[in-house]
Each structure stands twice: as structure tokens, then as C-alpha cells.
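Per reviewer request, we include the raw input and output of the structure prediction for the construct analysed in the revised manuscript.
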Amino acid sequence: MTLKLFAHQERCVRAMMLNARYGLWLEPGMGKTITTLEAIRRDAEMNGGAMRTVVVCPKSIMSTAWMKDAQHFKTSLDVRVLASDSPAKRIENIESRSWNVGLINFDQFKMLAAKLIESGVKRLVIDESSKIKNHDSQITKAAIWFADRMDSVWLLSGTPAPNSPIEYYGQIRAMRRDICGDLYWRWVHSIATARKERVWHKPRNARPRQIEVISGWSQNEAQRVELERQLGLCSIAMRKVDALDLPKQRDIVRVVELDEREAKMYHDAAHLLRVQLRQGDSEKINAEAALMKLRQITGGYFIDNGTPIKIGGSKLDSLNDLLDEIGPQPCLIWAEFRHEIDAIVSLCKERKESTEYIDGRTSGDAGSIASRFQAGEIQRLICQPMAAGHGITLTKAHYAIYYSLGFSYELFKQSRDRIHRIGQDQPCTYYILTAEDTVDEAAYGVVRGKGKVSDALLAVLSGNMKALS
């Protein structure tokens, strides 16, 4: 079959055909999956057969993205899911000679890398290659070991280095060892400069003392140019705004006023954290865990021995009012915690609205749920970013509501792009439900790239939210 590609996809296919080891840094919604499958098809056509390829990707997008797009190539490529809950079935799938494009998730790839090589795999594709952004993680080491034994390596990501330029190392190393070498710290210091700060450290059975730690990385002009040079040798980056004629996006922050009980519990919890910090107990404070507790309270709950206890409904009431404003238009509602998702599902059903949810409990059905949403069968779709932030198209909606936010810029961007992608013809509006002067404001500041989690904790405890605005 002849597949009609957008101009930017055609450009990427040509680049991949010319470069056996290459990266596509394309924003979500630009069609990386179908672009890669077309490059594999053309390579097979040119060389008289498909190079046996393994695609390593999140489990959640095997069916929603890869197998769905593979339908366009069923006469030329045999795309199979190799991943399985059964160890014996995984081995059987890998050893089968019938497939030429196999899909496997990151955890199973680590365990079965050697077996995949034995099966004759010659090309590695890593979808969401930011998974190998940590240079010394097990998955990064496995990916590099595997890549060194491949004839071809293609990496795909919308946000390859969401936090820092040094996160490119594992990805460049997997593609082109000749560019970055094997000495990680030598490479790091060639493209970035460490920012250091002094923090309190309390060793066991010793007095607290201040120590110097690396708090982040910056780049001077020469370092920025050097990293751009390296990336230019092995990858291409594109933005939707430059390649596609998509509608505009806008954010609207809706301020939620906590009720008396919620406000008291929130301020008591924040005060306790503030006291611990002042006493030099910073080692006892896990920034993400501390902020998670505060985030749960702004959503009307606290967790007691793993059980969510409801303390209020201010944010749920605000959501109810917002749904009244939106009316019958289909919309997405993003929430971080399962107890929030359950509460929102109950609310929407009370409103007599057709409702489904995608989280860890239903992620295996994400593809079919998304298809029903696109067909207009579902009015309200409640999603957890970790389960639904990749690989699915939800352009039936042009409204999205963030009931709660985490601190991952990557997940925030990915979740926004579920509705703002190829196929969307309406302006996209994102409502952010935010309790004023709370961790909600800090989270929004972080995901907009205005700070990091440690900054957010200090902003929350000091009351200086303007630092993240």
C-alpha cells in the first residue's frame, strides 16, 4: 500500500533511511510510530526483506499506538507483541520466526536482551527513549549493551531530556559511541556546568552540618553549541508548531477555596514539615513524598495506613461547577490518585454522564476505551497520566481538566498532547484546578518548567509561591 505521510514525517523517514543510528525528537502527536514503521517498510523493500527489529516501549502504548498503526502495514510487516505475563510464553514469542517487528516493554527487555539477540534481532527501536535518561540505571546499561550489538538503532521521544541536558548521554551513547565516548563525567563537563548549593545534612549519631551538593546544571554558550553539534550528528528535533497547522492552546487556572477542615489539615501538615526543616531534619524529608501528602489534602483526602479518608469536597464541587459550564462537550479529566479517580467517576455518574477511566487498573483496555471515546460513546474520560499519557489519541475532546498535578514536566506535556495532535481542529482549553497558596500552585510552576521539586518544597514551606510563578 501507499501511505500518505505529512511533509515532516517524510523528512524523518528519509533521515532514518540515511542513518542506521538516529533519533527522532518529535513532540507528541506528530506521528513517530507510523513514521518509524514506514521507515522499516521502505528499508525492507530496498534490501529484499525486513531487518528483524525489536521495539522497546511502555506497555501502555503497544496496542494503543504500535499495533493500531501496524494495521497500515499488515501486508508488508509482521508486527507482534512479544511481551507476556507468562515467562514461557515470552520465550516462545521471541523464538518464533514469524515476526519481523517485535514489541516488548522495558522491564522484560532488561531480562531478555540476550535472548533477543540470539533470535536474530539486528535493529533496536526505543520508543519514549527518555526512559534511558539516567546514565547508570539498569535499563540504560541494558540498552547500551544491546545497542552496541545492533546494526541499526533508532530512538523516539517527544521529551528526551525533560529535566537537564545531561540526560542526553545514555541516548547519544546508545546511538553513537563515537560522539560521546564511554567516560560519562568527561562528557558531562563538556556540555554543562554544575550548580551547587549548601544543604543541611544530619548523619546518624552526629550533629547536623551543611554539605555542598549539585542542585542542577546550566550551560554557557560554548557548551550549548557543543551539545547541539552532537545532537545534530545523530538526531532531528521538530515541534508541532513548526510542522503542523494545529489549533491554539490556552490554560485557565481555576482557584479552589478549601473548606475550613481541609485548610486546617493542610496548614497543620505544612507546619510540621516546616518545623522538621528548621530543626535540620532535611534528611528525613523526602520532597516528593512530603508534597504528595499535601497534594492529597488539597484534593480532599488524607491517607491513613494506606486507606484514603475523605476530609472535604471543595475541589470536587469546583469540578462539578466546571462541568456545568462545559456542558455536554466531551472532555478529559486528569487526576493523579486512584481515590480521586473513583470520586470523579462517582460524580460524573451522578450527573448521568457516560464515564470511563484509564489508570493502572484498566491500562490494558486503554486502546478500546480510547476508541469508544473517539467514537462519541463516552462523555467524560478520567485519566491517570502514568497510564494514559502516552500513545493514545483523544481528539474528540478539546477540553481537558487537571483535577490534580504531579511534578513531571514530561507527563504533563504528554497528557496535554492527547487532545492537541493530528486530527484536532478545535482550539484546546486546559483548566487547572488549584487551591490558592498551596502545593497545587507549586506543582503547576514545576510542570511549566519554572522550577524543580526541591524548589517547590521550599516554596510551599516558606509560603513564597511567587518564586515559581
